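= Paired protein data =
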Amino acid sequence: MVGGLGAGRSPGGPSAQSWGSGPRVARDSGAMAEARQAAGFPSSLSPDGADVLLSAPVLRDICLSGLRSWQRHLSRFWNDFLTGVFPASPLSWLFLFGAIQLAWFLQLDPSLGLMEKIKESLPDCGGQHHRLRGLLAAALFASCLWGALVFTLHVALRLLLSYHGWILESPRAMSSATKTWLALVRIFSGRHPGLFSYQRSLPRQPVPSVQDTVRKYLESVRPVLCDEDFRGLCGLAQDFLRLQAALLQWHLRLKSWWASNYVSDWWEEFVYLRSRNSLMVNSNYYMMDFLYVTPTPLQAARAGNAVHALLLYRHRLNRQEILPTLLMGMRPLCSAQYEKIFNTTRIPGIQKDHIHHLSDSRHVAVLHRGRFFRVGTHSQGGLLPPRALEQQFQRILDDPSPASPQEEHLAALTAAPRDVWAQARGALKTQAEATLEAVEGAAFFVSLDCEPAGLSKETPAASLDAYAHALLAGRGHDRWLDKSFTLIVFSNGKLGLSVEHSWADCPISGHMWEFTLATECFQLGYAADGHCKGDPDPMLPPPQRLHWDLPEKIHRSISLALSGARTLSGNMDCHVFPFSHFGKSFIKHCHLSSDSFIQVALQLAHFRDRGQFCLTYESAMTRLFLEGRTETVRSCTREACSFVRAMEDKEKTVSQCRALFRLAVDKHQTLLKAAISGQGVDRHLFALYIVSQFLGLQSPFLAQVHSEQWQLATSQIPVQQLHLFDVHNFPDYVSSGGGFAPADDNGYGVSYIFMGDDLITFHISSKKSSTKTDSHRLGQHIEEALLDVASLFQKGQRSLACGFRGRSEDDSGTGCGPPPGLHSGSPAAATPTGC
């Protein structure tokens, strides 16, 4: 239920001014690429424009192109129609029409005279058409009745999906109301839904009570404020409730009645698109390949299979063959974010960006050693097979031609502040429009890196850290950050994904990435020599080299962008470590929520790292509602702080600490359930702040809320398609998740993923410029904190972690047995813990 990576992170990085006064614009000779293509075109046309030898292939190609185009249009129209009438189906209309005809044959009139009136209103074409008019009248009546039934089903299902009592209940102790609700949802949900089938039936996100929101907010900040500051904040809150809250709340309720979602469009615009900071580390996150294995060491082969698998996913997406995500097997989540996975680019603007999405794209843009290529993904027969794509990528790798001056570092402009890049892009669009459109109009971006990456047996810790850094920031000029995502293929065949955040959240790209890894490895597979299966196509034309021929006047803009990007990249401190002492199975045996377990343990680790508590951001999804995105779970609670203090107090017994830990977990679960059911704090306060800015109202309380810094930003990466991976028979084929940058210059970004039963992988980031943070130091504290918490639930394992030496054990233990791989002789147990 936890949402996307780093959602809601405060943009950081250098200001636009630090990158210079702006790009120097000049003429670009990018049209030379078009001239070269024209020069290579066959010149055998006769003076009258006809060529007998070419006419038959041309006509055949035109015919096939038209048929494919119409087939796509008809397929999309049919899928949209099925989505619009779901949970009904066209067969239900046919059944209704047949029932009306049968009743008419038995001299019964189910329409109570309406069909006769419809028939009378139809034009009279003679007596011989009397029966046809009757059939047409019956069809019109059946269609109207069927439309009314479909509308009724939509309303009924929307009302059913608005019930959230099930979230607050344990599956083992469901109330009668929830059981009745489940039965009704089964009845009204229909069969064989497509990806977007439930969109018309999803409820809108509710606007919480402003009094409840302010109360919850004050409760959340109490642990991190001194008494004097808290009293001052309470005074500001009371003034806000008395003077401004009612007016701002009224505008929000008005928007909630009119718009699909009262907060999501503002969240996308003001948090992402209006940010002028660099996308690098501020609005991107990464996802890793398999942790322990690489299916093939051949870079071109891995790229061929991965690109083919991604395009297969897009094909299924276009045909709506991807099943919607259902909680409890029946509660659908919103699928709106899937629409912009492919063919999408974030276009920079002077004041705000906009997201440009194409209905289709039949090529990918590729970057290798500073050179750009256009690789077609389809032939006359459809999608290119993996071996043909491998052939194209190998041609790029073997191409000895160098990058033209400054072209090698051109992509650094996408890492510049957005207004700087917008000005430079204006020059590019004027002088090299076709080349720019080839890159921005691609299905996605592919970067063929020249360096290896991934887990190394010689230096496992350092290699994983370098792998994460390469995916998050790269070298500053080897990613086109504007694209919805960049597929990164390293020289040793390792994969990775860099995702731009504005268009969607992590569960969407994560769903695609799971399908890609499973498909390219287990279904497409590789030949014994490491190549993609199949044979090369000698008739396949080579990839098209994209020529920018950049003018000298734009060189300064590129140099400034590259300098700023390298500064951002060099400032990132990334640390990745797999925690294998125990995992989800042990936590479940303790009858605890796995996510809450980690969140409370993170509070203990962070306190030991910094010696103080801080506001903690955990991203949770709100996709129970139409166009929902994320909400914040404020994990630093009074209950969590009480537990941490008890753990640091040697006078507290194990049973006391265990009881406080369960209270902290229960509190976190309460906050998480409130967040996903639309009763969170932060999105409501954010929307109230936006309304106050529109109305020109100054609210010291909302200004205080808006200025908060999240020194600990966290997120769990959800695993959504476990059926694609056999973690028991193939335990090495597990993804190591992904990560994001910290939200605050003096803070941490922490993400984690549960893979299998006994492995948790953590991704930690911070900034080297901060003297208060150290990613490796926090990683050590997280490991020790997890071991200390686990020892609370062990029988007879008092000295399992050194943090418990000297602590009294007042009972024999009421937890579960020792987790797999956890023993007192482990290296972590020999390390003293402390604040």
Summary: The first strand starts at residue 284 and ends at 288.
